[in-house]
Amino acid sequence: MLAGSYSCKREIQKRELLTNYEVNDFSELFKAFWTGMNTQYQFWDKETVNWDSMYRAYKPKFDSLNHVKYSDTTINRCFQYMADMTKGLHDGQYYLTLASGGDYRFEDSLYRSYYTYMPKLLRANRVHANLPDTLFDHIIQNNYLNDFDYGVYKNYTTAQVIQVITGNISKGAKNLAYISINDFLMKESYDANYTARPTRPVIKNFFDKVHKSAVDGLIIDLRNNRGGNLEDIDFFTGQFTDKTVLYGYARHKSGSGRLDYTPALPLNITPQAGATEFKKPIVILADIYSAAVCEMVIQAFKALPNANVKVIGERTYGTAGTVVGNDISTNGGAFYMGSFAMVNISNTALMDKNHEFNFNGIAPDVEVKYNDASIATMKQTGVDIQLEKAIQYLNQ
User: Fold this and answer.
1) Count of CB atoms situated within 10 Å of the CB of 334
2) What domains can be seen in the chain, in order of their start residue?
3) Parallel, antiparallel or unpaired: strands 161-169 and 145-154
4) Sign, CA torsion 385/389/395/396
5) How confident is the model at residue 10 (pLDDT cuts 50, 70, 90)?
6) Which band of pLDDT confidence, cut at 50, 70 and 90, is reported for residue 67?
7) Which residues does the UniProt record annotate as the domain Tail specific protease (predicted)?
8) What pTM value is reported for the model?
């Protein structure tokens, strides 16, 4: 009976995720673009964009491009159509790369020969440019820190560079430790055996202060941190707790249907060796360029049950998803349209512990905004208004 029941079982073939569509003309390009987004995008249940309406509105426009002479003008018009179709989407990981470049108009500004269209980054750039390297290399080192130390590591495959800066705040009466992390490659850099200025002793000394609670408070500077490796959530946040802590949920696509999603899977902080529960106040500095895994780290810190964590600065980027592992295993993510263009999107959707997606960024507890003018003033005066507010708050 057992053998019989297995022999009669219908075999269901696992879908192969199509990640490179064949494209020979503009009609096929539209079909690849629309289908790829329809099949592999993670957030259709949360979007206000009607993707079926986009099909009806834009298919004739792409078809019409086949009847005019192929030129830079037609390529740019196609690029404009693709940008217009997707400019309202929530996914902070979304970007469109056109192999030949292109011109398009976005929010009344014309971008010429712009190879990569990333709408959320363009919106951030309109608020202010990212903070300059001189902020950390000179201003903070010279004006705010005693016992300054730093380590640098580069992943030569991805070209990502992490710079970890530590020290003790020189202003105010309390003993405050400071750490700046510009990219989450902490564990990778900690384990690396080849680097001229290793991060391992810098990170280890900071963790020792955390484990011993040898300070009155901490400032964790995550401004202009665009994300990095997921393993750093445990490696870093797990130094502050001796218990497993739920901080969010993740889901993937479960199939090729537009609304095929897996159940929400819990995300937990795993305590690291030697960790104790840290109960001293923590300030996290964040800005509009704090994104992706960086935002997950902030959510994890905010979830620590007995920690006093405040975010000072600006609302974060608002990524809501990340790229984890293999796109085929997650039934979603990036895809290519022949050699013409490429779309990058999240293959994992992320929620906080209240099951909310981080589309609009994490709001600061104390808002201190920069703009291009105040950044220029900071360069001249050496006064970092966001760090000043953090020091003031912790010295109350």
Assistant:
1) 18
2) 20-127 (no CATH), 133-241+277-319+358-394 (3.90.226.10)
3) antiparallel
4) positive
5) very low
6) very high
7) 154-369
8) 0.91
